[in-house]
Write a structure and sequence with these properties.
Strand content: 25-35%
Organism: Saccharopolyspora phatthalungensis
Helix content: 40-55%
CATH architecture: 2-Layer Sandwich
Number of helices: 8
Protein name: DUF6879 domain-containing protein
Oligomer: single chain
Pfam family, one: DUF6879
Radius of gyration: 16 Å
Number of domains: 1
Shape: globular
InterPro entries: DUF6879
Largest sheet: 8 strands, mixed
Structural class: alpha+beta
Length: about 180
């Protein structure tokens, strides 16, 4: 297998250096990233959030979009959404405003489609960054460049995209889904 592991800083560079398209499969119910701890605490306390903690990502997405590069993802939501996912319902419209194409599948739909239970990024149709987590925290990325393996991840991406709905449509329909 043609793969190697990157720590967080090197993975961040990969996110900035792709050519045309970066696509994310995001399927955990909760992430415990250190940079999100305080914003999540404030959200849980009902305090306002200026999203300054998210600004570097939003600026990166906006700059990439202006340059003709694309960030997109399909996020899997449990029903009802976890507390973390409910927070993401409030935060994610900023990602979309920055230019990210975000779509949603429910956990039941993802399971029925046979989609993987591991997060990954697909870069430029040629490299997969399989994400590793420990206690819901990002721990590193395994890079997969074998064409046969990459094709499997591309097929999963295509299935997910064919069945996912735009995030804002999911958000609009959420009251019927029992938010």
């Amino acid at each position: 297998m043609n793969s190697w592991v990157l720590p967080g800083a090197e993975f961040d560079e990969l996110l900035r250096s792709f050519g045309q398209r970066a696509w994310r499969w995001e399927c955990q119910g909760t992430y415990r990233q250190p940079t999100e701890a305080e914003p999540w605490r404030r959200w849980r306390a009902g305090e306002p959030d200026d999203l300054s903690w998210l600004r570097p990502w939003l600026d990166e997405v906006a700059a990439a979009t202006r340059a003709g590069r694309r960030y997109s993802r399909v996020r899997v939501f449990q029903e009802p959404p976890t507390e973390y996912q409910r927070w993401q319902l409030d935060v994610s419209p900023a990602n979309i405003a920055a230019g990210e194409d975000m779509r949603v599948l429910t956990q039941a739909e993802a399971n029925a489609l046979g989609l993987p239970a591991r997060d990954f990024w697909l870069f430029d149709e040629s490299r997969v960054a399989l994400m590793h987590f420990e206690n819901q925290r990002f721990a590193g990325t395994e890079i997969i460049a074998s064409p046969q393996e990459v094709n499997r991840y591309r097929a999963w991406r295509d299935i997910a995209c064919d069945h996912a709905i735009p995030f804002m449509a999911y958000l609009r329909d959420l009251p019927q889904r029992s938010r």
